[in-house]
Amino acid sequence: MMTSGDCDYSDSDTPSRYVAGALAEEETAAFEEHYFACGRCWKEVSTGTGARTALADVRKIPAENPRSAWWMAVAAAAVIAVVGLVTVRERSVTGGPDVIRGQSEESIAVDVSTGSVQVRVRWRPVAQAARYRVQVRNAEGDVIRDRRSEGTSAAFDDLSGRAVFIRVTALDAQGEEIARSPLVRAPSGSP
Amino acid sequence: MKKERYSAPGPEAFAGESDQPHQMIAATVSDEYWERVRLFATRQLRDRSEAEDVAQETMRIVLEALSRGTILNLDALSGFVFQTARHLCLKRMRSQRRGEAALAKVATSDIDPAADALASLIDDETLQRVRSTIAALPDADRILLQLFYVEGLGAEEVGRRLSITASAARVRKHRLIARLSSIERGGNAEGEPGT
């Protein structure tokens, strides 16, 4: 077995490029024969393959960080508040429906409307979603409602008149997050 | 779907119970090469169960060659194992009439290590530990792993994107790999080995 001092690839990017499938054919064949004899390169290939697999999942599920989530909620609330003001302004002019539309990068489109007694949330179905999680946060970013639904709508009582923000998350059959909406502010209730 | 953990077969799979020296050689060869052959064969064949078969067959042929004294120079053992595994993979690709398509895939190195077959090489528990560790990494470290092992970029480019030197990118990569390797072997997130 080769020692690390004999390794031609000790300071090269070949092992990680092999894991990524980025090597040319000749390089691949030569490196494959090499890692059968080199413990150091084999360790990088083996662990790098695991890391690559795990990264594919991690990319789908952002790390939970309560502090950053709180700041994100506040930041999102600030942005949405501005959008909300503009929307309310437009509504007073157009008299359109009491709805704010949100669209996340993962394409969950959410409609939130406020009636006299209920805040109603509707969303477009997401392919491969087994169920949805609907969270309602207050202006401080705290979760005040947390509901699961297999349908594409949910209604919450006793929220009218409060500044609340809604997020819908699509979950697969294993309960893993596959898409989410942005935080969408519920419009204030109809006068 | 629950993934089973596949581990190297014990020496009894390759040698008679009364043959103690042969068992020791079998155990050593299996420990050293089983996972290598399995990963290599999985990349070639894109099929975990076929890769398991190739690994078994490779071990059998290598141990028979050792017991017959065909392999005189043990420094050449790794090359012999590799060539045997490679030959068996090619044979399977041809015999299953996947020949041209599969060989073309290999020839163009159109290999996707994230394919299901490769993902299945890692058992669920280990994958969960690695996943949790990666999720808890600072963004810069996670991006660095992504650039190296998913994008396949070189250290110069990774360093440029992260505003660090190429050598610093390599050092961080090696530290992260050492840490993840420790996690895979049951150690903790700080890279301390498991018991």
Could you characterize the architecture of this molecule?
The complex is a heterodimer of chains A (191) and B (195). Chain A has 4 helices and 9 strands, in the order H-H-H-H-E-E-E-E-E-E-E-E-E. Chain A is of the alpha+beta class and 191 residues long. In chain A, the strands form 2 sheets. In chain A, strands 4, 5, 7, 8 and 9 form a 5-stranded antiparallel beta sheet that branches. In chain A, strands 1-2-3-6 form a 4-stranded antiparallel beta sheet, with no helix packed on it. In chain A, strand 4 and strand 5 form a beta hairpin. The longest helix of chain A is centred in the middle third of the chain and has 29 residues. Chain A is rod-shaped, with a radius of gyration of 25 Å. Chain B is elongated and about 55 Å long. Chain B is mostly helical. Helix content of chain B is 67%, strand content 0%. In chain B, helix 1 runs antiparallel to helix 2. The chains are: A alpha+beta (191), B mainly alpha (195). Chains A and B meet through helix 1, helix 2 and helix 3 of A and helix 1, helix 3, helix 6, helix 7 and helix 9 of B.
Strand content of chain A: 25-35%
Helix content of chain A: 25-40%
Tally the beta strands of chain B.
0
How many helices of chain B in DSSP terms? 9
Return the string of H and E elements of chain B: HHHHHHHHH
Helical segment count of chain A: 4
Shape of chain B: elongated
The description of the largest β-sheet of chain B is:
none
N- and C-termini, Cα separation of chain B: 29 Å
Helix content of chain B: 55-70%
Q: Give the helix/strand class of chain B.
A: mainly alpha
Q: What coarse outline of chain A follows from CA principal-axis ratios?
A: rod-shaped
> What does the oligomeric state look like here?
heterodimer
Radius of gyration of chain A over alpha carbons? 25 Å
Strand content of the residues of chain B, in percent? under 5%
Number of E-state strands of chain A: 9
By secondary-structure content and strand pairing, the structural class of chain A works out as alpha+beta
Major sheet of chain A, described briefly? 5 strands, antiparallel
Mean pLDDT of chain B: 77
Radius of gyration of chain B: 19 Å
Q: Uncertain segments of chain B of ≥5 residues (pLDDT<50)?
A: 1-6, 107-115
